[in-house]
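Help!! Second protein's tokens look totally different from the first
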Amino acid sequence: MPFYEHVFLARQDLTAAQVETLTEGFTRILADGKGRVASSEYWGLRTLAYRIAKNRKAHYVLLNIDAPAAAVAELERQVGLNEDIIRFMTIRVDELATDGSAMTRRGDRAERGDRDGGRDGGRDGAGGREGRAERPRREPRAAA
């Protein structure tokens, strides 16, 4: 069977338990279509880059799916009808990720170290203006 990654964004006023109930319902839809959810990840309540349907935040959930195309089509139909879901996206992948997604691997940041190869990243107190001349100060205007 083909593999898919399905991410959906649920409204901010739902509780985590309600989002878990939605996830279980979507899992049942896939099971009825002879598919399965290999893993699911709750990424939490996160701030959106822009407002969507008057929501500034949303609950993010990722489902790694192993199911036939018909089951995924039914899942997308049901998700589209659900008023608690504000956005969703399903993509087909070659294989399912065995380790966690990038959102859950926070420990990688410490292992990577400095991204700039040892420089201090322009944080020398000059606000990243190293090598630039200071701007001349304006003289205050005399009151006329």
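Here's the second one for comparison:
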Amino acid sequence: MSDLNHPIFARFYPRFDAQCAKAGGDAHRAELLAGASGRVLEVGAGYGANFAHYPPGVTEVVAVEPEPRLRARATRAAAVAPVSVTVRPGLAEDLDVDDGSFDVAVASLVLCSVRDPARALAELKRVLKPGGELRYYEHVRGKTPGKVRFQRYADLVWPFFAAGCHVTRPTEEWIARSGFTVRRERHFEFPEPARVNPASPHVIGVAVRD
């Protein structure tokens, strides 16, 4: 199955993300993609919020999105993107692309919600060329006991309202243990006020396939 239906989430997420974009989310996406080049695979592309930020060194983007309403919006965004973008259905855990066929893989606010993160990371490693880059922008588990405790309580209900999203995942640690070498990584809180937001701890990083 390559479709995941989340009609309510698909309706409100683009509006929420538009507010985040004004608060700094657009700058984070630009940071994520700066200097990317060659052929790119983006998993969980959502409604195509990253597309406008791909630099000219990118020759092609294959964008995978399993939610049909978000995928339709992404297709419209692809039509006006500054680089060539093809949007297709699919799951991060089961990518219908050849081994070693991409220079860069992009995971942006998606590894929090995939059903099997280990399998998704294995797939991202599989499709990258040796030395290829995994670029990630994710919200992750907090660094303080109080924040982690808050996140654990929030995670009892958060996935039901946010299309399976979990706020307790140590995604950056999983990446480092999945056959990637982390080249750079930046942790930050976003958006404010962070203390009342269980999803505020974020990371942007670049890791290279070993």
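Reply: Different proteins will give different token patterns, so don't panic. The mean pLDDT is 94.
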